[in-house]
Amino acid sequence: MSTTVSGKNGTWRNWAGNVTARPVRAVTPASVEELSAAVRKAAEDGLRVKAVGTGHSFTAAAATDGVLIRPQLLSGVRRIDREAGTVTVGAGTSLKRLNMALAREGLSLTNMGDIMEQTVSGATSTGTHGTGRDSGSIAAQIKGLELVTADGSVLTCSERENPDVFAAARIGLGALGIITAVTFAVEPLFLLTAREEPMPFDKVLADFDELWAENEHFEFYWFPHTGNTNTKRNNRSLGPRRPVGQVGGWFEDEFLSNGVFQVANWVGQAVPATIPAIARISSRALSARTYTDIAYKVFTSPRRVRFVEMEYAVPREALVETLRELKAMVDRSDLRVSFPVEVRTAPADDIALSTASGRDSAYVAVHMFRGTPYQAYFTAAERIFTAHQGRPHWGKVHTRDAEYLAKAYPRFAEFTTLRDRLDPDRRFGNDYLRRVLGS
């Protein structure tokens, strides 16, 4: 999932290949001082600045025609404070590297998304999340941030230091400054037991409140054109560790979930009429299984089949109705959807632009195989999501603008006022931010 800028005026592309940009120059600072200097130099040259991680966003959140900052060298664990239960890492550290480093120290994040290729700053800035009854997004686990602001100065913020910046910058979309380090809350390493099993769509919806309440982490995938889902419950375990067997793991996670799935999508792309039949087979291919492993290995899974994605957070109590409408829409349309719909939850948090800001939320993610026309499906889905006061994931495809988002987020004005103070000249601006935050 690397991003490439080739040549002096080379092109940058995101992971899904649906966003490209042509920066004037790319800079890979080796220190915070070098980053500050790069920001000041950009101001002298009248250029805008954006930091980019692994390009895992489907939106143009990181695209720039100015200076592209790559944070790869600002990576690694800076310090572990066992007494405070925190770890401080450079912004360019990948979630994978962070998880592995913590595990070696007998520590763990409380919750994770389902992929770990992203950088910590990219993942948190766009609101990356997993699923959890009590534990929220990765950004909700942040205890402190260090960021370089528009004038090149370095700002440290936490609940005690610059608390107004801390309240907003944990999910800051890169609009307030460039994050150079993140301090996360950590806890002793723990085991999770995952229970994966197929379940009829109607049963999951009928029992959803119960399934949510009884499990620390509950999620499910619904296969469009079928009445089938695959559910996953993760709960803490005393052990012993019983990971997925190498052969079984390879068969389910690589062969079926990536290899066969890739081929099925190629077939579906070539002959869309085959998709409903493929969906029925796919939805029955994965069998029930239970395994126990260290947390991050259970939270995450490999994703090698490339796709484009839209995801909205709706109030948790609106989830069942939202999904019923989504299924009815697919059933009566001539759409052919080869990717499952992913459903997760998060508790309310106190971050200004978090999709779970001030309300218990449920996430509904719709995907399309890369290269397949997705506009008709996403437009119809978005109409349903917005009718339920949906908030789009900042890093995934959506068509919302500042006017809509100001109504969807009670603390929207708090964020934009802070942005006016920290970046009055829009040094960190781009077209995407102009659309979602206003000019």
Written account of the structure:
By secondary structure, the chain is an alpha+beta fold. It contains 14 helices and 20 strands. It has helices at residues 32-44, 95-104, 120-125, 163-169, 201-206, 208-214, 246-270, 275-285, 295-299, 319-332, 375-387, 402-408, 412-422, 431-437; strands at residues 12-13, 20-21, 25-27, 49-51, 67-69, 77-81, 86-90, 107-108, 142-148, 154-158, 178-185, 187-188, 191-200, 217-222, 228-237, 289-294, 307-315, 341-346, 361-369, 391-392. An 8-stranded antiparallel β-sheet has the order 16-13-15-14-18-19-17-20, with helices on both faces. The radius of gyration is 21 Å and the shape is globular. The model is unreliable at 1-8 (pLDDT under 50).
Q: Write down the overall mean pLDDT.
A: 91
Shape: globular
Assign a percent range to the helix content: 25-40%
Rg estimate, integer Å: 21 Å
Structural class: alpha+beta
From the N-terminal CA to the C-terminal CA, the straight-line distance is 31 Å
Output the number of helix runs. 14
Oligomeric state as shown: single chain
Strand order of the largest sheet: 16-13-15-14-18-19-17-20
How many strands, which pairing sense, and closed or not: the largest β-sheet?
Answer: 8 strands, antiparallel
In short:
With 439 residues, the protein is of the alpha+beta class. Helix content is 32%, strand content 24%.
